[in-house]
Amino acid sequence: METESLTKPRPTATNFPRTTTLRNKLGYALGDVGNNFLFDMGQLYLLKYYTDVLQLPSALAGTVFLVAKIWDAFMDMGVGTWIDNRQNIGPRGKYRPFLLWAAIPLALLLIANFSIPNFSVTGKMLWAYLAYMVFGTCYSISNVPFGSMIPTMTRNSQERAELASFRQAGSNLGLMLATIGFMPIVNLLPTDKSGYLVAVVGFAVIGVLCQWGAYANIREVYTQPAKPKATKADIQKSFRALLKNRPLVTLCLVNLFTFSAFNLKLTVQVYYCQYILKDTTAESWLGVFSIGMVFVAVALVPLLTKIFDKKTVYVLGCLIWAVADILGFFFANSTVMLVILTSIAYLGDGFTSALNWALVSDCVEYGEWQSGIRSEGMVYSAFTYFRKLSQAIAGFVPGLVLTWVGYVPNQTQTATALLGIRGLMFFYSAGMAILTIVVMHYLYPLTEARYRQVLTDLIHRRQAAPTPVPVNH
Fold first, then answer.
1. Dist CA 278 CA 149 (whole Å)
2. Following CA atoms 366, 371, 375, 379 in sequence, which dihedral angle do they give, to the nearest 10 degrees?
3. Could you give the CA distance from residue 419 to residue 405 in angstroms, rounded to a whole number?
4. Between vectors from CA 406 to CA 401 and to CA 408, what angle results, nearest 5°?
5. Domains contained in the chain, CATH given
6. Per residue in 72-131, pLDDT tens?
7. What is the mean pLDDT of residues 136-156?
8. Does Transmembrane show up as a keyword for this record (predicted)?
9. For residue 426, what are the CA distances in angstroms to 37, 254, 291, 430, 436?
10. Quick check: helix, strand or coil at residue 426?
């Protein structure tokens, strides 16, 4: 392993070297294809599996998501703290090995969630709670390191935006394929129970292969020596630093809004297609066109961020999203109109989703600049903590509302139930997008000019001491 000379002139914030190849970016995208094959099955189809296959009451089934995701949120923080303070870091890197180690356990646990035996309601609920909570813990061990890697792959701000876009492209490719392919597989089998199991096994196997492919093609370019073993006081100091990181706190808050809206829409759309449009094939069309529109957003984001601040592009995406969903509530009465308006909404959502991973990497640098503490794992896990809370909301609220409006599985729904499904599908997400615009505009302080100044200050500080440098593997 060769190291760049520390005597070379250090780059400035505006011309930090580009250190990732197309292969690295595609590998990072492939990792999120695998993440979504392993994760989206639960977010998209598990509530319907509970209510329609296991015949669990909707509100009771929704509590599984509430409890499990709150548990996951705390697991993310614990995993982030553990990773930041790992002592034995081998030649594979600090973060990459988790993609290799966690893939198979994660796949087996996903299958267990769709293999609930024909127990009593109490037995089914206990299995559901345990399986989904253990699955979430394993997913944290895989996903927190994966998301923490961007700052170790490049210091170049534009390249980070590109990596974030590649990751979002991979995420949405995985989501699109899951949306298009899952239910047709289920419908091929003689019973829904066997159909769900076969579909989940297929996606789980491919998900493992994608994660291993990502492991083989991602490189951690910037390395740092292992930190001294953290004391309780060190960990407390790191947590206090997180709370003072205003860009991070703001980003966490808006993700609570936007990610709950996105995941709730994914959960509810299967009900919308079946009971309002009476067209179960509509979900596959949504996968092709609506989620496919996010690829357009992913392509546009690097171009837009060359002209505007990331913050401005983020707010623009939420505005597009909100307008499209408000129109959707009133006019999405056919498959064609649903696909068109949801495609526009997902275009706006794609701006926010693609930028999240670049913004959280900027928050790492800001946190180090502000407090002197660099903690990629803890910053990322704080970010995902709120995303997990949003998933808890997205799983719990539909179950609660469906019970409240009188939803009955596999029956003709009342006008009240249909209105509840329509409101969940459109008004909730539109409201969350508007709230995000307000919070992001007034509270997020990190413009591009501000970020460049922060990074320049950090560069000057590091000149007096050894600093992470690119290495050739």
1. 44
2. -60
3. 8
4. 110
5. 22-464 (1.20.1250.20)
6. 777 877 787 787 777 677 778 788 888 889 999 999 999 999 999 989 999 999 999 999
7. 85
8. yes
9. 25, 18, 16, 6, 16
10. helix
Tens digits of per-residue pLDDT, 411-459? Answer: 888 899 999 999 999 999 999 999 999 999 999 988 888 888 888 888 8
Q: Residue 152: which of 464, 444, 425, 469 has the closest Cα? A: 469
Which residues, in sequence order, are CB contacts of 430 under 8 Å at separation 6+? 321, 322, 325, 326, 329
Identify which of 313, 344, 324, 311 has the alpha carbon closest to the alpha carbon of residue 439. Answer: 311
CB atoms within 10 A of CB 421: 23
- Asked whether the beta carbons of 385 and 239 are under 8 A apart, the reply is no
The angle that helices 157-188 and 448-462 make with each other, rounded to 10 degrees, is 110
* CA distance linking residue 27 with residue 24, whole number of Å: 5
Distance (Å, whole) CA 106 – CA 132? 11
The mean pLDDT of 11-17, rounded to a whole number, is: 58
pTM for the predicted model, two decimal places = 0.68
CA torsion sign for 163, 167, 168, 172 is positive
Please tell me the number of Cα atoms within 13 Å of 365 on its side-chain side: 27
- CA nearest 112: which of 36, 208, 41, 191? 41
pLDDT recorded at residue 15:
59
Residue, of 463 and 122, whose pLDDT is higher:
122
Cβ-count burial of 252 within 10 angstroms (0-12 exposed, 13-18 middle, 19+ buried)?
A: buried
User: What single-letter DSSP state applies at residue 15?
Assistant: S
Q: What are phi and psi of 3, to 5 degrees?
A: -115, 140
